[in-house]
Amino acid sequence: xxxxxxxxxxxxxxxxxxxxxxxxxxxxxxxxxxxxxxxxxxxxxxxxxxxxxxxxxxxxxxxxxxxxxxxxxxxxxxxxxxxxxxxxxxxxxxxxxxxxxxxxxxxxxxxxxxxxxxxxxxxxxxxxxxxxxxxxxxxxxxxxxxxxxxxxxxxxxxxx
Length: 160
Known about the structure:
mainly alpha, elongated, disordered N terminus
């Protein structure tokens, strides 16, 4: 259901892929934050699994389109990721390359942002079509990512 696929470091839309969502949507952690809810109803968890499967499928399609966009711009994925990481972290060492590589990077990045813009409403629709609202999906996703017990419960639901 929730698998790691191609890692592309870009400014991601809210729902680009469920496996990266906690880093993008969680507020900065605060000391002694209240306990996260993990006791969702079976109905909520069934809606979540249906939504997460649909979102994951959309995400995989987006990942494939993003890899193609990077390659179509004349870059390999590793170089693109290194350049993106260097832009996001001023302490990271930028990969060797000149203006041509930067032009390719910017071209690919613009295409990735377009793909993300197209995918976000599809993911929202997939979540809503499952009977769950986006806020509840995010709440369950964050709990899923942090709770081995909830992961086991969801896995069990999916196997039945």
